[in-house]
Specification:
Layout: H1 5-16, H2 24-30, H3 35-46, H4 50-68, H5 74-80, H6 85-96, H7 100-107, E1 111-113, E2 121-123, H8 127-132, E3 134-139, E4 142-151, H9 156-166, E5 177-181, E6 193-200, E7 210-213, E8 216-226, H10 230-244, E9 254-262, E10 267-275
Length: 277
Amino acid sequence: MFTNNLINKAIDYIVENLNEEISIDDVADYCHISKYYFCRVFKAETGESIYGFIKRLKMEQSAIEMKLIKDKSITDIGVAYGYSSSNYSSAFKKHHHVSPGEFRKTANSSGAAHPFILDKKLTFQSFEEYEQQIQIRYLDDFVVIYERYLGNYLDLGKNWNEFTEKYKDYMNEDTLMIERFYDDPSITNVKQCLYDICMTVDNNSTFENAMTIQSGKFAVYSFDGLIPDIFEAFQGVFNIWMPNSGYEMDERYGLNIYRKIDREKQHVVMDLCIPIK
């Protein structure tokens, strides 16, 4: 968990401006802090250099865009993230160990390897089956308190337990538990996934770790099943439904909204909310 508010502020700035030319000076200036001190603090908190972090996120988000927007050319995607055509191809292959063209050929297949369970093969439904389970909704702002993590989604259950125990006195019947996710674990190293654990609070909350998740239009997929099956279901939405839906994901990043959780039976009812333009 990140405990330094400056690091959270820096990450917010980076993820909101990934398709811009972001320099270390830009991020340090935004945080009103010395560049050299900021570089030391960022590396100590995240385990990555600020330059390496920005470059990695650009590579991974560009791959997500390639996966979700099949009609956008590889060259245009590379240019959107600050690369020339030739530089993007070589940088992509160095990071992902596959060329952009080869990645795109396999990105929307009907099955994939499971990043968390060795030897398990993911199988997806048809576009029509996902289409029947998805609604387009407008969601209002969520005022939340949050904790941010950079790590393995396998630690999510433990992190949620600690989070809910810490803030149990502020929960009521209207409280929503929300995850804000920034990565696709089929693309990002499973040990480097960035995500926020959130809980809705009163609009007048004075928590230091409060933020507002912005309103907007979302494609909402409702999941009712076992926790170990969440990843397969959601990858199906991203691999099959999203690229063929006619919608384009925007920059607000995705949300998982929990409706019911039975930890003993490993059962959950939740909404996967994909922000769309």
